[in-house]
DNA sequence: CCGGAGGTTCGAAGGTTCTCGTACCTCGTC
DNA sequence: GACGAGGTACGAGAACCTTCGAACCTCCGG
């Protein structure tokens, strides 16, 4: 696990389990977050910038789950925290998964275009 | 929901939730079963033909989860039950999902070929 | 007709998940 | 220095998941 200044510990990609990933993506709140990250530009994003209708402590919980499932990297910058998708690493280990899930979720409520 | 002779009730594909699907696939036993079905020939298969190291009642539970998540169709034939992947229907609603998950799982322990 | 294989239902135990509130920490700003 | 925004740690509650065994059902084969 890396331990850069402010970087919260994350598992190596090799140690990440598909079951954990699917569980992480099964939660609507977490999936919404991942979705936004997937069709973002890949740069860091403030954790506080996600409009989740849940308590602060619950968010902390969800960030931990996403981190431990190998989906995101999280940096603690004192007064705020930031997340970044582990895009390339993740894609190398679970090819196509993010795109497929993102594609399915994005297709929501737009059956025939 | 359909109610053919022996066909256990299943949700219409439209009513199936991605979260439920991902949860269903998150379990190793269920994922193993789906995997076998995916690279099978699409024909019906006896429920008893899956080598799951769990109790009978636990199997029943897992089959229900898979059914209710929209992944399989199950037929009760008196002395035995049979399952079939809802391949095309599922593919139409969640394009690519099964292939991606199957691909990832199959890639296990064969990094460079 | 009896036994066994295959299944379901029920209830229960043990673990995990999601949620929250409270207390506490750390910065930047006034 | 005090305040507020953003976060974490901890504890607790409710709900759910996986698992099992026991009791029961339904057929097919001998």
What features would you describe in this structure?
The structure is a homodimer of 113-residue chains. The mean pLDDT of chain A is 92. The longest helix of chain A has 13 residues. In chain A, β2 and β3 form a beta hairpin. In chain A, 21% of the residues are buried. In chain A, 45% of the residues lie in helices and 11% in strands. With 113 residues, the first copy, chain A, is mainly alpha-helical. The interface between A and B is medium-sized, with 20 and 20 residues. Chain A binds a DNA duplex (30 and 30 nucleotides) through α3.
Classify the secondary structure makeup of chain A into a structural class.
mainly alpha
Assembly annotation? homodimer
- Quick one: overall form of chain A? globular
Number of helices of chain A: 5
What is the percent of helical residues of chain A? 40-55%
Element order of chain A: H for helix, E for strand = HHEHEEHH
Query: How large a portion of the residues of chain A is in β-strands, by DSSP E?
Result: 5-15%
Placed side by side, the strands forming the largest sheet of chain A appear as 1-3-2
Low-confidence runs of at least 5 consecutive residues of chain A? none
| End-to-end Cα distance of chain A | 45 Å
Topology, number of strands of chain A: 3
Largest interface: A-B, 20 and 20 residues
């Amino acid at each position: 696990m890396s331990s850069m200044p402010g970087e919260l510990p994350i598992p190596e990609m090799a140690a990440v389990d598909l079951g954990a990933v699917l569980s992480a993506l099964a939660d609507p709140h977490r999936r919404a977050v991942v979705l936004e990250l997937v069709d973002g530009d890949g740069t860091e994003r403030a954790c506080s910038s996600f409009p989740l209708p849940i308590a602060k402590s619950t968010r902390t919980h969800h960030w931990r789950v996403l981190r431990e499932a190998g989906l995101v990297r999280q940096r603690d910058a004192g007064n705020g925290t930031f997340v970044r998708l582990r895009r390339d690493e993740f894609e190398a280990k679970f090819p196509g998964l993010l795109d497929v899930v993102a594609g399915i979720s994005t297709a929501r409520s737009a059956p025939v275009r």
